[in-house]
Amino acid sequence: MMKKIVILLFCIFPIISYSQVTIVAWNFEDGDNIADVAIALNNEATINRDDATSGVTIKYEDGYETGKAMKTNKFHSQTEDQFWKIQISTLGYTDLTLSSRQSGSSGSAPRNFILQYSLDNTNWNNVGDAIIIAQDWGGGFLDNVLLPDECSNKSTVYIRWLKLNNVSISENNVYPLTIGFMKGINIIFNSYIILMVFFKLFRKILTKFPKT
Known about the structure:
This protein has 2 helices and 12 strands. By secondary structure, it is mainly β. The longest helix has 16 residues, at 2-17. The chain has one domain: Galactose-binding domain-like (Jelly Rolls, Sandwich), CATH 2.60.120. It has helices at 2-17, 195-206; strands at residues 20-26, 37-38, 47-49, 58-62, 68-72, 83-88, 93-104, 112-118, 125-132, 141-146, 157-163, 182-193. It starts with a helix and ends in a 6-residue tail after the last helix. The chain is globular, with a radius of gyration of 21 Å. Strands 1, 2, 4, 5, 7, 10 and 12 form a 7-stranded antiparallel sheet that branches. Strands 3-6-11-8-9 form a 5-stranded antiparallel sheet, with no helix packed on it.
């Protein structure tokens, strides 16, 4: 009996351990910055602009294809970092991938961004190369970008889309006072459930049966 159970568990183990999960996602269809799809740990996750920029206007409209986007202004020329940022939990999950889309509403919107992560909200690390934005969703796509291993199984991970410089989509300097809105849409984090969860389950099941 014991041998049969062990064989059965080993047969189903690879299927269980590689079930993909969306741990958090935004599509902005309900017109706010709160995650639209999330595991329990990320139910209240939000996406926000940087604190250094005052007077930011936020709208939810004109998204990719028929959807909505979070649109913000005030990506003007300045020395402080300007970005969108989120704070999420990856506790119990590994092999995180991220997908996102960005677009500019006019040629005066900033063109160059980069994806970054941090574990302490102070020290930031780049992920991949620069994200090149275009008007009307003609660029700025990230598709299942794999985040570094140190983002896995953490109670808190910070992610931001940082403006790299003041070059606009039209390849001029971003105008210092008034610029086109920048859009962000469909931010999705997928992950796999960590294997140790299943090892614990496996051991628990085995202890219920006597040795033979």
